[in-house]
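Replying to the earlier thread about multi-chain prediction with a worked example.

Input:
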Amino acid sequence: MTEEICHSKEPARGGRNLRADAERNRERVLDAAREVFAEQGLDVSTNEIARRAGVGVATLFRRFPSREDLIAGAFAEKMHAYSEVTAKALADPDPWHGFCVYIERLCRMQAEDRGFADVLTMTFPTAKALEEERNRAANALTDLLERAKAAGRLRSDFAHQDVPLILMANAGVVTATRDAAPDAWRRLLGYLIQSFAAEVAQPLPDPLTKTQLYRTLIRLSRRPH
Amino acid sequence: MTEEICHSKEPARGGRNLRADAERNRERVLDAAREVFAEQGLDVSTNEIARRAGVGVATLFRRFPSREDLIAGAFAEKMHAYSEVTAKALADPDPWHGFCVYIERLCRMQAEDRGFADVLTMTFPTAKALEEERNRAANALTDLLERAKAAGRLRSDFAHQDVPLILMANAGVVTATRDAAPDAWRRLLGYLIQSFAAEVAQPLPDPLTKTQLYRTLIRLSRRPH
DNA sequence: CAATTAGTGGAACGGCTGCTCCACTTACCT
DNA sequence: AGGTAAGTGGAGCAGCCGTTCCACTAATTG
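Result:
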């Protein structure tokens, strides 16, 4: 049943063809899901998504029987972009520069899409389509790290497990600061990159202002929206 | 109605005279809350706390009318310990060592108590008792940073707003890794401290093992337990 | 232009939440 | 001991949630 997960470009023409209006609704649901996930994160009510898509809840559930199906569908493109980032970083003639750009892009993607941040750090063994893309990216990453180390720019004790570690840390900052100081993560990253290079201190992005900090913490006090 | 609530007999026993069994129940609720908050974080059901305390929900709500009252009560001690950490760090003859110990302790407190992690990073303007303690700590922290900078060990562009930034990052790591790799945060902190000192790379704690990483991400995939 | 289904929306269900109400119980004071 | 108000527990309310069901609608096909 769940064997085929359509690539977003080619709507369902590969295996089953949905009725025209059904396919249109499917796309509307995905658009709404992407929109809401990006704004509010992954744990948003099903009703809310259906409402925003302008369809009944039943339609959503028939098309995406489980929550994971919906998530996989919504983030398929972005997951592909993610693995492309890895490939591009690998293609960079300067491995260290490639590494830095890679990390920066990843963190930026987290910062720009709250749902995607959750996908990257939280929902690992989700639908097969995502997992496959993830594995391809992981392999490319290993190569990237090897080269940066061989070039003598990346510290040799940097582990590939440190990448999700960075992502988790970044997620913490990003979810906390999104509304009041959406660029706060850059400062964390500035600190981290520096220690990955094991070089002397370089200029950092500006720290949070006092009011940014205040508003960040205010906002977070009412989690259960 | 009447202004005075207490009879003139024993007006001030800590400002509040509850009936003996009421006071005992109050303590039972606080104990249960501390226990559950530490395990499951701040957003745990009121019923669950009452059940674990062995009292009815009404008892809980009469004693702690709002959620914030309960949180403030449960974490009063720990918040005091937190401000003491700052004071102790300030008393350290070596300001840089004091700074490092301070950061380490803070992150450890987050790692050991999921609820407290939330209190520190998420619920800022909560009950006054907590806020007051927080301010005292903030002032001591400013002094600590000044001294460490004056000693030439802490980089001069370190901002006091970077401390919550660290805490947010640490929270991200800690909430993600608590079950599978409860010491993962130490590695992040190792990286960070290094870049705060702007010195050459030093040995780091071990990275996550492959299985630790896997189990971490597995666990997180089913958030709505 | 029917006839045939795939497709639809929204009501409804069961389970959870924070919180309140009220008939009872029990500690305290004399 | 006995009166009384403080204190109690749990049923119950309103409001969410994910999910299912089913009477209806309309795209497709011949």
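Chain B touches chain A through 49 residues (CB under 8 Å).

Feel free to reuse this layout for your own posts.
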